[in-house]
Amino acid sequence: MIVVMKLGSTQRQVEHVVKLVREMGLKDHVIVGTELTVVACIGDDRNKDRSVLETVDGVDKVVPILAPYKMASREVKKERSAVPLGGKIKAKIGGPKVGVIAGPCSVESKQQTLEIAHAVKEAGAVGLRGGAFKPRTNPYSFQGLAEKGLQILAEAREQTGLAVVTEVMAVDQVKLVADYADVLQVGARNMQNFNLLNAVGEQRKPVLLKRGMSATLEEFLLAAEYIMSKGNDQVMLCERGIRTYEDYVRNTLALAAVPELHRVSHLPVTLFHDLLSAFRQDVVRKRYATWEEVLDYCRRSANPVGRLVLGVAGRLTPALGARSDDVCTALQLTNFWQDIGRDWQNGRLYVPASALVQAGAREEDVDAPQLTAAWKRVMADMVQRTRALFESGRAVCDGVDGRLRWELRLTWLGGSRILDRIEAADYDVVHDRPKLGATDAPLLLARAMMWRR
């Protein structure tokens, strides 16, 4: 339950309520809002006499909390929480400004980490993430540099001013990591490691809590509750994706969970503003009038991902960023044309109305037994525009090196191959969805090896 104090209640009245809460065998947590002060009562309050608190001077009302998570609930705190990150920049996550935290999966060397730190700082990030301790599925994989990695992260903070966010994997690591890091990260595999949650809750540093790969939203928020119940209310929720039947990607990003987390909890959720605005738009918007409107959606839904990849790799420049935008937009458009049949069944169409009018095509003809000649003209135009974007962005594949170069080449080639399939099907993507198969892999690899610059 929560005790809502009257407007203008005194500090002495609040302290008296706190004393009574403790006498009832409950823990107290005072939350001072912009207008009201609330005393959250933590513990099993089912058999407690709430009238003891209701008649106290300065108390407006005593409200039972229906959600199983108390401290994380909107019932306790109506205002959104903003968590300070630390570091020299002194940024916050959850406030009016979007804060980006970026960095390598693991700290592998001093040179790698410092180069990436300066790159993400230049790109506008406020925090540097990097694993000094890395949980791996394979026990023979690189497990991190441990304290040496923490020292490298601390040096990166000294040079850039970025707040350091790094994972803590075990209770006995908490103090060591807290000595170096500004934010303690609890990884997806440890979301329900309750001893670890209690341990980071006893620290007075912000905690970035990742959602477990199969966790429900309620379980996610209850994990945050463990941390907050120990007195640490500086919790940020990270929606990092869940495991589904889809094997195209390692994790499926559950974007629909983000607005729901915002609705039921005051805790900040770390996702990019452009991506979130694109998601909101996709929920309510089913049609696009012009090609420019479609491109604007791609700018917010796809392009941030490419820029983040380049930034983390330390290769983000204005020129490569622009080429990356072209490729990311082309990939998003390719997916639109590939999924026209599926999207149509859900009442959504990304082909702009202006293109239909120009070709003399009608929306309702999508339901025809065969794709009409007018619709084929529309699809030929869409494929041609998309190919032009692929070609315009091709240089990004040569602007990086190492493994990333091969990954970008294969991604570029894979998208182009889908367009080949659309053309080979005479543009009828409604009745036969084009996709890549096992036989395409050797061809794409060969083309990547014979790549022309």
Topology summary:
Blueprint: E1 2-5, H1 11-23, E2 27-32, E3 37-42, H2 51-54, E4 59-63, E5 83-86, E6 91-93, E7 101-102, H3 110-122, E8 127-129, H4 147-160, E9 163-167, H5 174-180, E10 183-186, H6 194-201, E11 207-210, H7 217-229, E12 235-238, H8 257-264, H9 273-284, H10 291-301, H11 303-312, H12 318-338, H13 340-345, H14 353-359, H15 373-393, H16 402-424, H17 440-449
Parallel strand pairs: 7-8, 8-9, 9-10, 10-11, 11-12
Antiparallel strand pairs: 1-3, 1-4, 2-3, 5-6
How would you portray this structure in words?
The protein folds into three domains: about 1-65, Phospho-2-dehydro-3-deoxyheptonate aldolase, domain 1 (Alpha-Beta Plaits), CATH 3.30.70; about 85-270, TIM Barrel; about 285-450, Farnesyl Diphosphate Synthase. Helix content is about 45%, strand content about 10%. It has 17 helices and twelve strands. A six-stranded parallel β-sheet has the order 7-8-9-10-11-12. A four-stranded antiparallel β-sheet has the order 2-3-1-4. A two-stranded antiparallel ribbon has the order 5-6. α11 crosses α12 (about 320-340). It is globular, with a radius of gyration of 26 Å. The mean pLDDT is about 85.
